[in-house]
């Protein structure tokens, strides 16, 4: 099965965002798709979307997408103890090759995702994105989780994370981003503190990034 193209990824993201907009649910992209739209070179392979709501859980939000567009569909998790389903979007396929795109829907504070004030959400290509600094902090958290995982497939993901984080750091510097900015006071303090510990771990592995971390407001 071939991976989705960047155009297909953005198309699927737009379809999901439109459904939530129509229902007056605020949302934004994070993960690799948001990184890509900010300028990271790697083509994402799925869509990560956080919806800011207290009315619905992630499973109900997935059902909304399936109800709104028949190309979204759910399959049971491979984990027999899991209570969630996996959301996919059908892509153009041939008889020999079925293609699809994975869509992850999350609700804060899952994975320590913060509630982003509406005025802080960034719009690129008419898609709402997690702001750069919290996006970077969550990418760093993902790198830390992957390197500490007992699963080999998860551990392999840390090297892709490093590429994304390194590029995102440079983009943040170019845009004058700094974790100490007053307008980032809505980011939970615990997430910032944990990020500082992870920065030290990252610099220990990749010392050439120390200056860049300091330029966005971390001790390195």
Automatic annotation (TrEMBL):
This is Uncharacterized protein. It comes from Trametes cubensis.
């Amino acid at each position: 099965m071939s991976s989705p193209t960047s155009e297909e990824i953005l198309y699927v993201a737009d379809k999901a965002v439109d459904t939530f907009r129509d229902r007056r649910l605020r949302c934004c992209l994070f993960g690799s798709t948001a990184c890509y739209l900010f300028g990271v070179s790697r083509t994402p392979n799925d869509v990560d979307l956080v919806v800011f709501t207290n009315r619905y859980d992630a499973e109900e939000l997935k059902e909304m997408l399936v109800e709104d567009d028949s190309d979204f569909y759910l399959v049971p998790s491979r984990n027999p103890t899991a209570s969630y389903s996996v959301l996919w979007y059908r892509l153009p396929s041939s008889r020999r090759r079925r293609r699809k795109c994975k869509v992850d829907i999350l609700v804060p504070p899952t994975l320590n995702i913060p509630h982003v004030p509406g005025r802080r959400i960034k719009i690129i290509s008419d898609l709402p994105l997690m702001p750069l600094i919290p996006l970077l902090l969550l990418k760093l958290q993902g790198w830390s989780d992957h390197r500490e995982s007992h699963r080999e497939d998860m551990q392999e993901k840390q090297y892709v994370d490093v590429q994304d984080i390194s590029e995102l750091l440079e983009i943040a510097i170019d845009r004058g981003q700094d974790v100490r900015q007053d307008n980032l006071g809505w980011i939970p303090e615990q997430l910032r503190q944990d990020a500082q510990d992870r920065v030290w771990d990252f610099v220990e592995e990749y010392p050439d990034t120390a200056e860049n971390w300091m330029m966005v407001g971390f001790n390195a």
